[in-house]
C-alpha cells in the first residue's frame, strides 16, 4: 500500500504538492526556472500580446481616419510620434507611445460574420467544418513549449465568446481563461486548510491506486494524474503572483485604467515578465451598427490608457524588443454610415497596430480609398501573411507542416511574411 | 366580523396566496409524468439474438486471427455504469443500483437496458448527441434557427421510436416554419449572414448521414479520395431550390442552382446529380425529397453503415471506425465477408431502422462487456487489444456526463423526469454552466483529447464540486454521514454512489481509520466530504472504463 513518507510532519502547500507528485509523473515536470523574470533584451525568449477588439472596430475611428471626407464621419485625426502617422484624435495617450510600432491599414479578410471572422483572425485559417485550426497562441505553445513555466503558457483574459483554441492540436492547448483579470483567477484555492487538503490528496492516491490495478498503462495515457499534478503545481506556484496586481503602485494601476481590459493589460505585462509567451487580452463592444461614433468614444476611453501604458511600461522595462504587441479585431466597418449612424461589417480594408519583438517599426502599410468606393485597399495584407510574419519573428518555422487528425498536412501558416515588417 | 379578525385575514391573504401558488407549483412539478415503469419483460427476440451471435462470431474470429486473448467479462455493476453513462449521460443512482441488485435472472442486464431505453432521459440525452452531429453546437442566427426546438423535436422522435430513415428524410426534405416544424432547423442552421449556405448543407448531409467527408471537394477535387468537385456541386444542386423566407423553408421550382466557375469566372447552371447509385434516385418528388430518398435508400449501404458507426461511437465513446464521418467505401459483399458495420447495418435496415434495437444488439455483444483491466503489461499489446475491442477502452467522459454524474451522486434518489422541479432546474442550469466552464467538446465530441488543467482545477476547487461535496441535510454527503449505519456500510455507500462499485479491502481499511478517529458528527461529516472529494477527482470518476 502506498504510504506518505512525511505524513506526520507539517508541510507547506508547496511541499505538500511535491509530496503529492511523488510516485507519479513528477520526474517529467521541468525544473523551475526562476530566472525568467530577470531576463531582458536579446536573451529573453519572445512573447506575443494580442489585444483583441471583439466585435470589429471601425478603422475610420481608430488607426485609419479620413477626416473631412464623406466617409470620415465627425472624427478628427491627430499626429503621433511616428512621422507621417495620424490616428483618431480619440487616442491622445497612444499617439505619444506609438514609437516603434507599425500600422497596417490594408488588412483583407473574406469573413464578414463575427464567429467566422474571429476564427479566421485568431488562427490565420478560414474556418471549415472538418478542421478546427489552432490559434496563434496554441501554435506558439505547441512549437516552443517553455519548460520553466508552472503556469499555463497560453492565456486569454477578459470575457470572450470565441476564446483562442488549441484546435486540432488538442484541448490542452486551449487558452487558459481568466474572465476577470486582476480580480481572481478562479478555482485556484483549495477551499480547505492544509491538513485537510493533505488528507484529500492522500485519499485520492488510495482511490487512484485501486483503479490503476490492471490498467497501469491505460491510466498513464489518460494523463489524468499528470494534469492534476500540474494543476497542483500551479496552485502552489510563486509564478501565480503574476496574476495579482494589488502590489503594483496605485499610480500604475490608475494609468492602465480600472477596467477589466486595463487590468488585463497590466497582468499581461506581469505575465510577460514571468515568461509567458502568448497572451490575449479581450475588449468587447466594438459592434457599432448604431451610434458608431459615440460607441467608439466609449471604447477609446478604455483602450487608449491601457494600450498606451502597456507600451510605455514594456519600453521602460526593456521588454518591447522581445514582445510583439498586436491590436486587432475580426474586421473593420463600412465607409458608409448607415441610417442609425452606425457602420456595418467590412472585412476588406481594416486596420491593425503591430510592433515590438524585433519587427520593423514606424511603418505604415497600405492605404484605403478616401471615397470608400474601392473595395480593396492598396498593398492588401492577408491574415495569414500577418501570422507568417509574427511566427517568423518568433523563430518558428511557419512553413512546417503538421498532420491534422484527418491525415491532411497543414502548414502552421500558409502566408508570406510582410517584407516591410521583417 | 370584528375589525381585528378582518385585519388578520387581510394580513394573511398575501401569505396564503403565496403558499397556495407554491404548493400548486410543487404539486404540478413533482407529480410524476408517469409512475416508474415496471421493468420490461424481455420478448423472446430470436432475430435479435441471431444478430448478437453474428457480431460475437465476428469478433471471436477477429481475436483469433490476431492472436488476442479478450479481456474477461466486466462485472455487472461496471456494465450498468457504462449503460447509464451511454444512454442517460450520468452514472446510476443508488436507488437504481439497489433496484438492479434486487432483480434476479441471468438476463437482468438485458432487461435493465430496455428500462433505460424506455426512460425519457434516453431520448433527451441522445437528442443532444444527434443534434450535435446534424447541426453542431452553434446557436446560429436566432431569428431563423431554433436549436432548442430542433433538439426537443428529435427527442420526441426518439421517444416515439420513429424509424431512423424516416427521421432523416424529414430533416432533408422538411418544409415549414422553424418553430412549428422544428425539423426544418436542419436547413436553417446553414443560414449565415442572411444567406443560405447550400455548400454547408451538402457537407453536413453527407457527413452526418453517409459518413463521408466531401467538404474538400467544395473547392477542388478531393486530394486522396475519389470525390470530384463536380460530385459536390451536383449534390448541392439538390438544395438549389430551397428557400428560407418569412413563411419558413420552402421549395421554389423557379430557382436554378448556379456556381461561379473558378477558372473562367463565369456562372454556370449545375444540374442535380448523385455521385453513385444513380439507380436509387427516384424520378418523382421535389429535389430535396429525391435526395432524401437516395440518402436513405435501402441499397445505399453507406447510410446504414454510417448510422451503425455513430451509434457504436456514442455507446463506447469511440466510433468503430474513426473518425466517425469518414468511412471507407463499402466492400462488395459477394466477394468479401461482411465487416461489423455491415452486420449491424443489415440488421438495422431489415428491422425498420430501429435505433433502440441497434443499441440493444451492441450492448449485448462481447465487446461492450469486456473488462477494461488486463494482465498485459506491454503498451503496444494493450493498444492492439483495445483497437480490436478485446479490451474495453478508457474514454474520457463528456462534460455533460461529468456534471450529470456529479449531480446524480449528490442525491441518493434518481434525478429524472420524476424528480421535483427544483432538482430538475438545478440539473439544467448546472449542466449549462459546468459545460461552458469545462469546455464544450462541440460537434467534435467523439475525438479523444486529454483533459486540461482548468478542468482539473474546476473538479478540485470549483463551485460545483464544493456545492455537491459539502454536507447538507439534503445531499448524499450529509445523508450518508447522518444515517445510522456502520462505518463499513457508510464507506460502501459512498463508493456505490460515486463509482458504482463497493470499495476494495485497501480502500475500506484506509477510510475506516478516518471514520474511527472522528469523534463527533461534525468530524464525520468532514471525513465523508474528503472521501467524496477524492472520489470526484479520481480518474475512475471521469473516465468510462
UniProtKB/TrEMBL annotation, chain A:
SUPFAM superfamilies: Alkaline phosphatase-like (SSF53649)
Any single Pfam family the record assigns to this protein: DUF1501
Record's protein name: DUF1501 domain-containing protein
InterPro entries assigned: Alkaline_phosphatase_core_sf (IPR017850), DUF1501 (IPR010869)
Organism classification: Bacteria, Pseudomonadati, Planctomycetota, Planctomycetia, Planctomycetales
UniProtKB/TrEMBL annotation, chain B:
Domain annotation DUF1549: ranges: 54-242
Domain of life: Bacteria
InterPro entries named in the record: DUF1549, DUF1553
Pfam families: PSCyt2 (PF07583), PSD1 (PF07587)
Coiled-coil intervals: none
DUF1553 domain boundaries: 288-413
Record protein name field: DUF1549 domain-containing protein
Organism for this UniProt entry: Gimesia benthica
